[in-house]
Structure formats: C-alpha cells, structure tokens
Ribulose-phosphate 3-epimerase (Hevea brasiliensis), 216 residues
Amino acid sequence: MLSSDFANLASEAERMLNCGADWLHMDIMDGHFVPNLTIGAPVIESLRKHTKAYLDCHLMVTNPLDYVEPLGKAGASGFTFHVEASRENWRELIQRIKSKGMRPGVALNPGTPIEEVYPLVEFENPVEMVLVLTVEPGFGGQKFMADMMDKVKTLRKKYPSLDIEVDGGLGPSTIDMAASAGANCIVAGSSVFGAPEPSHIISLMRRSVEECQKNN
Ligand SMILES: O=C(CO)[C@H](O)[C@H](O)COP(=O)(O)O
Ligand SMILES: [Fe+2]
C-alpha cells in the first residue's frame, strides 16, 4: 500500500482486494530505522474499520517492541520486525506478538547475512515468515536486487514449508526470479499501482509462483 493514495486508503485497499490481492502489505517506517516516515497504529486502526483483509505489517522501526501492543489493538494481522532492530530481544518480541494474536515474521536488509534469521526460525516459539528485502528499505519504486535470490534459495532448501516473502522491486520482469528461487509471498507496490490493470499484474505474479510450486 506504500504506492497507494494515502488520502484514500480504504478505497485503495478495496480496489486492490477486488483486483485479486490476498493481503495488504503495510509499510510502517519511523524516520529513524529508515530515512522515511509513513504510518503507524492509528492508520491501521482506521483501515481495519473498513476491511477484514489480512494486514501484513512490515515494521521498519528501531524499537519494534513499542509497536506490539498498539498494533495488536489496532487490528494488525502480521507483525514483521527487522532482525537488525531486535538482536537483543527477539525472543520476547515473538512471544508478545503471538500473545496479541498476530503472526510474527522477521525481515532482513540486503546487507544482513541470511544466517542471522536461522535462530528465529528454529526457536521453539518461532517466527512464521521470513521477509527477504530485495531493495534497501525506506522507499517504493526501487530496482530489484537479483543477488538477494541466493538468500531465498538457501532458505527454501533449508525450510521447505516456511513462508518466504520477497519485498521490493517485484513486477512482471522480476517475478520469475523470485518464484523460481522459492518465494511464496510476493509484495508489489509500484508495479501494481502503476499498472493500467493491476489485476493483470497480480494474476501474472500468482501464476508464476503457482507454476514454480508445481514444478518443485
Ligand atoms: O518495504 C518496502 C520498502 O522499504 C516496500 O514494501 C517495497 O519497496 C514495495 O514497493 P515496490 O514494489 O514499489 O518496490
Ligand atoms: Fe515492505
């Protein structure tokens, strides 16, 4: 939703769901972890009044723990925090996210090695999704970093049933790389909102993921 018209968020959300989106990806940025500031719990709470959709919150914030309670109350569905922002407290974070009824995920920046997320996936109370950033976090509309696909391949080999989300620069020209590497949750902002027919882009990307899953 980062590429949506924020002044018309509810109708933009409905439009994307009508175009076939499964989830709404909500980029929460604090102007500190990343050099951009977007939305927080009050906006999630307002949007929740207009939709029952899965709100997939991606927290690009320095103190994710501070957001658990407000986002839980606001009606967030998924809570994906950054491994770079939770090296001291990820165990507590996962536990608190689950206790608020949200689904925990962990994200990693392009410069962070994939090994850093293994303990969170293998923990007795694990994260349920890994988000591999395929651009530097902070802004939509950037170029897809194909070299991040090695991370996706490594994760898929190690964890065959894990939800692996790719985020940044996904669209018709990059989806096959991500899908064949093993990603099964696709975030796309500018390619979808910038298309004359967003539904065509969404179904093209869904087909690519389904084809790759069939062949594996
Ligand atoms: O987390 C993000 C940026 O930090 C966004 O979710 C991502 O960039 C999606 O936008 P686009 O598809 O335009 O790249
Ligand atoms: Fe994101």
